[in-house]
């Protein structure tokens, strides 16, 4: 397609989107309205399913199918990154030299790492009770692990971050979400319907399938973020073109 053709295609698509967007905006309730029927119904549904966190109820119960789409977007992004950034025949891997880290940075990062990991896992586990959940806790847990990169160097991070296991975890989290939905079908209900016992309100066992779906997302997001960062860091620190020679060893030297 020519540049002129692409421009016309964009303009037609943009005009169609603008028309739909403006029409939707005029159909919205007036600003400042105190009547929000969806919010009232969402709160009522969350309480009826013993889910104290209404946001978690919306994500993993009322609109669990939408959340599957969001999780799949991250899964596809991770898969695409792994494919595009894999080491090719004309590239070589150079081990990074040990980084020079200031003692204050080292000790602070090492001290914060277990706390950050614990907070991330807490946010995932308590997603159906308090603000948070698998998405937020997964990002915190994955990035907390990389405090070791700041506290020591890339080689230390590699020793505690087996990327193949996280790749399996990424696929397992995605599969667990789908399997939970299929389990609802086997139970005679709709896909991703909340069919498990609801438990006691405001406890870790409350919410029915919200617990499982939230945990599946936490596993997928944690593993996916770790794999993403691993592939990008590999490109930045270790992998370079084979014809770079000794220059790559200097350019690819890890610094903190």
Automatic annotation (TrEMBL):
Domain annotation Na+/H+ antiporter MnhB subunit-related protein: ranges: 107-226
Entry keyword annotation includes Membrane: yes
Superkingdom, natural source: Bacteria
Compartment list: Cell membrane
Keywords assigned: Cell membrane, Membrane, Transmembrane, Transmembrane helix
Membrane protein topology class: Multi-pass membrane protein
Pfam families xrefs: MnhB
Transmembrane segments: 68-86, 107-129, 135-154, 175-196, 208-230
Record protein name field: MnhB subunit of Na+/H+ antiporter superfamily-like protein
Species, as recorded: Streptomyces himastatinicus ATCC 53653
């Amino acid at each position: 397609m020519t540049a002129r053709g692409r421009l016309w295609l964009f303009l037609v698509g943009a005009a169609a989107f603008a028309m739909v967007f403006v029409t939707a905006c005029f159909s919205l309730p007036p600003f400042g309205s105190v009547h929000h029927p969806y919010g009232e119904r969402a709160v009522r549904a969350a309480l009826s399913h013993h889910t104290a966190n209404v946001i978690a109820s919306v994500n993993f119960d009322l609109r669990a199918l939408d959340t599957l789409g969001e999780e799949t977007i991250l899964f596809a992004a991770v898969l695409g990154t792994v494919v595009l950034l894999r080491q090719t025949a004309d590239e070589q891997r150079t081990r990074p030299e040990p980084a020079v880290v200031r003692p204050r940075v080292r000790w602070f990062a090492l001290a914060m790492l277990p706390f950050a990991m614990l907070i991330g896992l807490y946010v995932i586990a308590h997603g159906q009770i308090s603000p948070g959940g698998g998405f937020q806790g997964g990002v915190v847990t994955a990035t907390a692990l990389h405090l070791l990169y700041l506290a020591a160097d890339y080689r230390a991070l590699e020793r505690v971050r087996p990327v193949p296991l996280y790749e399996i975890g990424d696929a397992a989290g995605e599969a667990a979400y789908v399997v939970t939905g299929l389990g609802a079908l086997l139970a005679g209900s709709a896909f991703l319907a909340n069919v498990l016992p609801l438990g006691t309100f405001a406890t870790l066992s409350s919410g029915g399938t919200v617990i499982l779906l939230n945990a599946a997302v936490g596993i997928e997001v944690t593993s996916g973020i770790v794999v993403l960062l691993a592939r990008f860091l590999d490109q930045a620190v270790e992998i370079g073109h084979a014809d770079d020679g000794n220059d790559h060893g200097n350019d690819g030297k890890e610094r903190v």
